[in-house]
Specification:
Elements (H helix, E strand, L loop, with lengths): L1 H72 L6 H23 L4 H14 L7 H10 L3 H4 L2 H36 L3 H4 L28
Length: 217
């Protein structure tokens, strides 16, 4: 009888140890999951905040372009095709930007914005339809000397510089987030918690990836 009770006690002790070990493992996993979740939330918020800085500058640029077209068309009315191309590219970029603003980092919308920005181009880098417009304006001395034109060129160039710097900050934040979600143990929980990869903001033009150089000559 004593032997049976001892065996039962030993069995209960072994079960208790197993339960304790399981409990410890579960607790560790819970703490890992909570820590990973909180870290990914912080990093996601960081790159979304970084994108909000880009969004402000892009909206400023998009607002300046209609004023630019109004100024230019008085001198270049026969360049209707180019002027229409600028407005169309600007509107496409606005649409893509609004989609990204609703969910920064989303791969599909970020790629569309990059393509739209490449089509629109840059005053300072001389790319896209904006670059073509300013190249054509070189043939119009009166337009080049127009005070409003010079002011708009300066504002657009300044805004493009700010977009470039903000884009770098955003891409750095995205890289930090993507790296964090791909390493252990985050890689186990990221998909489970809905933390998908974030997309860089890249413009499909080698010149656009360079830091803009300011020139008002």
């Amino acid at each position: 009888m004593s032997l049976l009770l001892a065996q039962e006690a030993g069995g209960l002790g072994g079960t208790a140890i197993i339960l304790i070990v399981i409990g410890v493992i579960v607790a560790i996993l819970v703490f890992l999951a909570i820590g990973t979740y909180n870290k990914l939330v912080q990093l996601r918020n960081r790159y979304k905040n970084a994108y909000s800085q880009i969004d402000v500058q892009l909206k400023r640029r998009y607002d300046l372009i209609p004023n630019l077209v109004e100024t230019v068309k008085g001198y270049m009315s026969h360049e209707r095709e180019t002027l229409e191309a600028v407005i169309q590219a600007r509107n496409a970029a606005v649409s893509a930007s609004n989609q990204v603003a609703a969910n920064p980092g989303d791969p599909e919308t970020m790629k569309r914005l990059g393509a739209a920005e490449a089509d629109l181009g840059s005053v300072s880098a001389g790319t896209g339809v904006l670059g073509r417009l300013f190249a054509l304006s070189e043939a119009y001395p009166d337009l080049k000397a127009n005070t409003n034109m010079l002011s708009l060129q300066e504002e657009l160039t300044s805004t493009e510089n700010k977009v470039a710097f903000s884009r770098q900050a955003y891409n750095d934040a995205v890289m930090t987030y993507n790296t964090a979600r791909e390493v252990f143990p985050a890689v186990i929980f990221a998909g489970m918690f809905g933390f998908g990869p974030a997309q860089f903001f890249e413009v499909d033009s080698p010149k656009e990836r360079e830091a803009p150089r300011v020139s008002f000559s």
